[in-house]
Design goal:
Blueprint (H helix, E strand, L loop, with lengths): L5 H19 L5 E4 L5 H4 L4 E4 L1 H9 L4 E3 L3 H10 L1
Parallel strand pairs: 1-2, 2-3
InterPro entries: HAD-like_sf, HAD_sf
Length: 81
């Protein structure tokens, strides 16, 4: 895996700040992801829809998640919320 540039890291931090501020404003956050880069922002979500490396991380760290195989699976879960 290639190291991230300073600009990429700053952009990720700013995105996380925005997400945390939204959580403080009463929004419910559902995060959908499948890779290592999704781990940090997913930790701030109320519900994680995961597969791949993110799914393995959620299982290992006892995070609340639902697994998915494809986009129609994601839509089904969102309709149930």
């Amino acid at each position: 895996m290639k190291d991230k540039t300073k600009e990429q890291l700053i952009a990720e931090i700013e995105l996380l700040r925005k997400e945390v501020n939204e959580l403080r404003q009463g929004y419910r956050v559902v995060y959908v992801g499948n890779g290592d880069s999704d781990i940090l922002p997913a930790k701030y979500a109320h519900l994680i829809l995961a597969r791949g490396a993110l799914l393995a991380y959620c299982r290992k760290n006892n995070l609340k998640y639902k697994s998915f195989d494809d986009f129609p699976d994601v839509v089904k879960v969102l309709k149930l919320l």
